[in-house]
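Researcher: Here's my situation. A collaborator sent me these components and asked whether they could plausibly form a single complex. I don't have experimental data yet, so a predicted model of the whole assembly would be a useful starting point for our discussion.
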Amino acid sequence: MAEMQHKSGSTDRGKKQSIKQPTKRDFLTTSLVGFSTALAGFILYPLARFLKQPPSAGGNIKRTIAAKIDEVPVDSGKIFRFGNEPGIVLRTPSGELKAFTAVCTHLSCTVQYVPEEAYILCACHNGKYDLNGQVISGPPPRPLEEFKVDVQADDIVVTRA
Ligand code: FES
């Protein structure tokens, strides 16, 4: 019995010796690696984003091809990229082409066309605009900026005033 206690006592000591307690050095090393990784991400992410699309590559563009004409059938809308912002081109139920900024004037969510209801919806706070970009209801304080629309061959060309 005493021999068993002695054996189990020596086993516990062996376990205690095999579990390494973290040292200040381990803590500092882990902290330094974490900090370096975060710093690298902080620097590299904006750089990678800039290299992918520099802000000057379209931030102030005045004109763009929004869609092919057959991409926007009657009573539908399509989001397109207008410089660094989304735009929306839509064809009303009567067949008229219209284009607006797709940035809601409330808190800048992206709006969408609601087919069959024939209005533009901002789903963030249920803001609604009519097909002239005027606010129908909800919190948006101003109408959507409207763009000029031309059809050139198969392209819907949108121009900012
Ligand atoms: S962001 Fe569009 S209604 Fe609030």
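Model: Some features of this prediction you could bring to your collaborator: The chain has two domains: 22-52, 63-159. The chain is about 30% helix and 30% strand.
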